[in-house]
Every structure is written in C-alpha cells, then in structure tokens.
Amino acid sequence: MTTGISEPRAAETIRLVDHLAGELARAGVTHMFGVGGANIEDLYDAVHRGGAVRGVVAKHEFSAVTMADGYARTTRRLGVVAATSGGGAMNLVPGLAEAYASRVPVLALVGQPPTGQEGHGAFQDSSGKAGSFDAREVFAPVSRFCARVDDADSLTKLLPRAVAAAQADPRGPAVLLLPKDVQQARIRVPTRDALPPPGGPATASVARLDTAAVGAASDALRRADRVLVIAGEGVAAADAREDLAELVRCLGAWVAVTPDAKDVFDNRDPRFAGVAGVMGHANVEECLRRADLCLLAGTRLPLLARGGLERALATTEVVCLGPEPPFVTGTALGGNLRDALRAVTARLPSHPRPCPPHDGPLPAPAPGPPVQARERTVPHAQAVAAVQAALPQDAHVFVDAGNAGASAIHLLPAPRHGRFVVAAGMGGMGYTFGAGIGAALATGRRTYVLAGDGSFFMHGMEVHTAVEYDAPVTFVIFNNNAHAMCALREEFLQGGVRDDDLFARTDLAAGVAAAFPSLRATEVTDAARLRTALLRGNAGTGPALVAVACDPREIPPFLPFQSFTEAAESKEGSDEPEAVRVG
C-alpha cells in the first residue's frame, strides 16, 4: 500500500521536520490540526510534502486542540496539534487542560523562536531567559510530559517519550517545544523508527493487576444480590465495551453511565438505569439505594457524576475498576481496565443472573412551576426528540456546555455505533465545534454538534473550517439569545438583579448563510421543521447548520436548579432537600 512517506537511506540527512512528519505517519496519525505561523511553518511544509498526514488549519488554536481531542476520542489514536509561538502557543492551554482532565492522548508540537535569539529580545520569546517567561512552566501543569527540543539529535529520544507519556495511564497531552532553527536542522535518519507502527506493541508499561485485589473484588461481587454498575469514559478509552457488557450479563446488574460516557453501554438495553449525577435520572439513585454493591468501571466518579448520590454511596459498598483511585470511599483494583474487567468476570459464575426490575431512565419532570414559553420557540425536550428521530445510529454526537447540553445528556440516547462525547473535564464552552470537526474528518461519519448560542459566539467560526474541508458535521445551535444557565443562576441565587446574560435576538442561520453561501443553514421554530432540516443535512456530504429558537427561561434537567426551586418551595421543615451546587 502506498503511504506517501518518503523512505530515505540510513546514511542520508533530512530536515528534522521531515523526519518528524514521517514518524507521525508511521505511528498511524492521519491528521495534524493547528494554526500556522512563522515558527511552525516548516512543520506544515513537511506535512504537505510528505503527503501521508493531512494538515488541517483551524481558525483558533483552542479549537485546533479540540479537533485533535475529538480525533483521539473517536479513533483511539494519538491526536496531534501544531501551533506557532507566542499567542498561538498560549491559546493551546485551555484545550490541553481539557485533554489533561479528561485523559485524552494529544501531542502538541509548539514552535519557538530560533535558539540564537532567545534571551536577546526575540519576538514571542518564551525561553525563560532575560526576563521572558518559560513556556515549559506554562505547559507542564496541563501535560503528562513537556520538553524543549534543544538540538536536532535529541528529538529521536524526546518524541517516543512524549508519545509514550500521552498514551500511558493516566493518558493526557504531551508537549514538545520546537525552536525554528532546530526544526530546519538536518539529522541522520535513525536506523529504527522512533515510534511504533499503528497496532504495534504499546510504548508504555501497563500496571499489573494485584491478584489478591482481584479475588477480593470478585468475592464482593459474588456476595452481592443486586449490583449497580456506573460506567465511565474510561470504558470507551480502553475499548472495553464488550468486556463491560459481559460482566454485566454475569452479574445481572443495573448499568448507569456518567454524563460523558453515554455511549459505553446500550441505552436501549433493559438493564440501562440512566445517567448518574447532576444531569441524570432519578432511577439511578433508586437503584443505588436498592443495591448491595456499586461497581465503578472506568470512572473515578467526579462531582458531576455523583451529585445527588452521595448519601446512598455512603451506605453502599463500592468497588472501583480502573487505573486511578475513585473520589469516593471504596476498594480500588487499579491496573488496566480491560484486564480488570476480564479478570473479575472470569471468577464469576458463567451463567447469567436475571436483572432485577427497575423503572428505567424516565425523564425528570420540569422543576418548579411551569414556565410560560415565548412564542415561536421549541422546548428542549421537543428539540432533542427531533434530533433523536433524525440521528443516524453510526453518527458521533458532541454535546457542549449549558442548558441545551444538560437537556441532551438527560434526554438523548447515545447512537448505537457512534460516540457521545461531553467535555466534562473543564466543561469549556465552544469545545464541540473543533472536536466535532476533528471526529468527522478522522472517521468520515456524520457528526452532530449540539451547542448553545453562547458556545457558538465563542468558537462557532470553526464552521468556516468545516466548510473549507467539507466535513460532514451538522451543527445544531439551541439559540435562546442568552447565557441562559448563567441567567438562571442569577435568578435563583441573586434575585435576578441583572440582565447581563440576556441578549438581543440574533439570526444565526441568516448570518452564517450570508458568510458561507455553500453551507446549508436553516432557522427553525418548531420540532417538525427541525427534524426535516436535520434529515436534509444527513443526505448531504458536507456541513449543515440548524438554529433552533429556544426560550432562555426554560429550566433544564439540572439537579442544582431543581434543588434551588425545591428549596424555595419548602422554606421550613427537616425534610427540606439538600441543595446540590456545581460552581
């Protein structure tokens, strides 16, 4: 098979960037996302000349990182982002922070001024010399590995170390700082590839399972008559869905998922209990109260996933399978998740247990008194139902922050054969625009981005990137002309004393249609037209955008808001519910 990678003889010298581009291609990287600039242009040139890796130019470095993030989450390969020095480099930080918090393997290749100019007033100097700040100190807290490539020969050692660190547990970003003159330097071609080929042996060692801990976990599961499994994003990252399903079959367990992991277990399976946490379903808490044991698989159970469950967790035995210890008290097995799932399952009786009856993930009733909706707006539940009716079962779904995101997490079943991704690490608004594009370009599948207008105003101009690369992305913008979650917090917590987060009406569909004439852009004010517009987008090959008119006063299925309204309705008495607060 022709890969487009040149194969120089071992005695030859080539530019460092040509070697780097070739090594990325040999490791299975197919796309490099980023924004160009003088101190990274040589790498873009090498990628273009090599032909095996496709360079994708984003509008902003944050979105370039999220493109690499979405690429990594949907392909389970290393995501790569490249940016120039100065402001371009600094714009990477919030995206890398999300990848760090969500354990996503991303390699950031960051241009730097030439080494001879460092400490001498170089433009965009971040060497730490002569009063400049040190880029390594900026990137170190949001990376698993960060190093400056001070000379050409050191790349052959630093590159495999960076990739290994990104892909080892806990996964996350690695950063290589590349001075311009080092990029241009010539090196002898190493006799061996610096990186393993795709599907080759892992570069990082995997912690071995403790036999005694496996036995203790298995014994606890055998003793339990009723088990609730709460599965997290780690199941997807470890490609362990089938292993999880087999363990659940043997246990006859109920299965809940964390908000960022709806796709790790079939949402239509009778064992499915719903989403855990502050955007989840009351049935999960009911199952937890009835359970003898709660098994965490691929999640540490952070606050978003355990909000509202703390009291029940405190009285339930907890076992955690995954490489990192949980945030709740319990027995942690540690080690590789797939190995742990298989080891525990092997010690259970092979005949499946029946799953006890339960109510299933019923939608939460709207908290508080009904809100009179504005005319010509679509309630979130109806909008999500229209998305569900149009969504291809092999599509990927990327859900942004805010009221619309909470509704989608609560109401929209994950596609059977695609990812359902939520940036729960940092929760940054606008993450989905780049991430959805990265996933669509990597896989060629129709990808849905569900976001509010606030997120669109932050990073929605990546629609231009989707148009330029003809990416099969459908952007569904829930437009309530507000930062509505902030406005509701002001209403509940501060007496509604200001209206900073309520905006004048903006016709987003007309705006992007005028800016990008080839983009199919539609505004809808009812669910039927929304479904029609989505189906029309599915039938095309490139991007589409649908703006859905929503009411900013609609209260989403978000437990903190329910706590606020219930507290307001029940000001006295010992049975007053405990408020759940996030932020």
What does this entry look like structurally?
Helix 3 (61-75) packs across helix 18 (431-443), helix 9 (211-223) packs across helix 15 (337-346) and helix 11 packs parallel to helix 15. The protein is of the alpha/beta class and 583 residues long. The protein is globular. The strands form four sheets. A six-stranded parallel beta sheet has the order 3-2-4-5-7-6, sandwiched between helices. The protein starts with 12 loop residues before the first strand and ends in a 14-residue tail after the last helix. The protein has 24 helices and 20 strands.
State the assembly state of the protein chains: single chain
Count every beta strand, where a strand is a DSSP E run of 2 or more residues: 20
Which shape, going by the Cα principal axes?
Answer: globular
Strand content: 15-25%
Structural class: alpha/beta
